[in-house]
Amino acid sequence: MKHIGPISGISAHASEFIATAGYDNQVILWDAKTGRSIHRVTHDHLANQCAFSADGKYLVSASSDYTARIWEVPSLRLKSVLSGHGDDVEMAVFSPDGTRVATCSRDHVLRIFDLDGTLLGELKGHDADVISVVWSPDGLRLISSSDDGTVRQWDTASLAQCGLVDIGGVETDTIAITRQGLVFAGDDDGRISLISNEHVRTIPAHEAGIKRIVWNDDKQLLVTLSYDRSAIVWELDAQQHLIKRRTTALPSIVWPRSCAFVGEDKLVFATFGSRYATWNYAEDQWHVDGIAPAVSINAVVNDAGQQYSIGDAGMLFKDNQPVMGVGSLCNFLLPFGPLLLSGGQMGQVFDALTGRLLYQHRSPLNCATAFHKDGVLHALIGTYTGEGLVFALDTAHGLTLIASIPMHDNAIKGVAANDRHLFSVCASAAVALHNIDDFSSARHVEQAHTRISNGCCTVDGGFASIGRDLKLRLWLGSGDEVYDTPHVNSIKCICASADGRVIATANYSGTVALFDLPSRTWMDVERPTASGISCLSQDKDSNGFIASSYDGNIYTIAYRQAS
User: Fold this and answer.
1) Nearest-5° angle of CA 272, CA 348, CA 149?
2) Is there a cis peptide before residue 74, judged by omega within 30 degrees of 0?
3) What is the mean pLDDT of residues 360-369?
4) Residues 6+ apart with CB under 8 A from 25
């Protein structure tokens, strides 16, 4: 048993069990001493996080299928399904006494359930996705963090909000709490906030956003994971000051999304591979042997009659044959003159054809598009830190950075361009247009979607975008238009056909839906795979589309034009 997609969540119980949750929909239970897998179960969609009860009798997993599920340990027999959320469940955690489970979701709501799946209450007040939740040590309160930049406390009896701390409006993905009630919060500016009775002390910690904070009461140690590709172990002293004990650069296979303490001096980490990684922080020794890269494909493109694809393994495939390893976890492919640009989680831009490193950024890279300015070919690359990096091709077939455009305050999820504008969407659901001639801002719409905007493309007369709100939006010179989609799960990607008449959209459950632009009607809906579709691109030979998937396959999407 192994994962075939990235591991997004990890938890440990004592030195006995480790559990992993992955983008392959799997939850796997491992023997912590031997490292062998014991059992596995699946969700209907991405498994985001998992957590053990304090006594180790149960495991709860949170999923993008809008549920959390409680499993008996070690059999992983399903005990109950916690349902009712209207969007991805990002985290689920047991109460200290093990009798209740709290869940948080991108629907902005927290829920409390008993172990049989009965809803005990809802907690509403956040204005954006709720990413992290913890119980107070006495079980009387919940503490939550959100993309709305706040940390809130809730009374679990009355279900009323009983505290609020504003983290300067900065998205805050992760929190932890000590037995004494001190709350740690990590934000997208790389800072740790220490919160005690709504008094806040903030310290700089990382060069990029903190994606996970993990606390160990017995050891009085805090671990922070960041998109700057580092992990820091902090010690909390008697005066409640954090002191750096150890810093490590994360191996490329490690995804800084989740980790857990196990044994005496070890941490286990989520990875972009088949199993978890281990770090002995006392000796600063990593163990990543035996981790096979995930088969996930994140990008596919046809260029000059050849089909190229790349994914979490950092291996470029040409017509399904491996040709070049770039040593980076890659999110996009962009034909660019004689180059084929790629980049991803390591913040590096490569020529994927040769493996040559062309540029290093301070945060992960998510997407790219090409455009012409003054008759010269340029590339726009979207970053997790909200900048749009503009490059020109230099005479040595390298890249020259022309501009770093502050497009968003959050991760850019998609970029597109026409002859006048650069268009971008971001994780906060905002849309931005910038003028090509001087890169100045032409328009910014903060709530373009009601959920994360995941992608965009160029269409005749303007642009199109999709989001986790299941909407297709057209941004045209004649005005904005909004359309419901046939999707029932979050839409991941979008592409327009070569002739510009059809828009393809695809989601995390493998469904592709086609929109006829001239008639403004939905056409074909098909599901080529049960895994998520990661990327759509034009198939210029057939005027159709090609779709890459987290299952490691590429699918052809044909269509018939609406009459």
Assistant:
1) 70
2) yes
3) 91
4) 5, 42, 43, 44, 45, 46, 47, 63, 531
Q: What is the distance between the alpha carbons of residues 538 and 383, in angstroms, rounded to a whole number?
A: 23
Rg, the chain, Cα only? 23
Residues 535, 331: contact at Cβ < 8 Å? no
Catalogue all structural domains in the chain, each as residue range(s) with its CATH number: 1-85+256-293 (2.130.10.10), 125-249 (2.130.10.10), 449-555 (2.130.10.10)
Q: How confident is the model at residue 48 (pLDDT cuts 50, 70, 90)?
A: very high
Q: How would you classify residue 84: left for phi > 0, otherwise alpha for psi between -120 and 50, otherwise beta?
A: left
In the beta sheet, which residues pair with residue 266? 262, 280
Cα–Cα distance between 414 and 428 in angstroms, integer? 12
Pairing of strands 37-42, 119-124: unpaired
**What is the pLDDT, as a whole number, of residue 508?**
84
**What pTM was estimated for this model as a whole?**
0.84
Query: In the predicted model, is pLDDT for residue 562 greater than 60?
Result: no
- State the Cα–Cα distance between residues 35 and 366, nearest whole angstrom: 33
Alpha carbon distance 174, 169 (integer Å): 15
DSSP SS3 for 270: strand
Cβ-in-10-Å burial (0-12, 13-18, 19+) of 373 comes to middle
Give the distance between the most distant pair of CA atoms in the chain.
74
Number of Cβ within 10 Å of residue 235's Cβ equals 14
For 377-380, which contacts have Cβ atoms below 8 Å and span 24 or more sequence positions? 377/336, 377/337, 378/402, 379/334, 379/336, 379/341, 380/415, 380/417, 380/422
Contact 102, 112 (CB under 8 A): yes
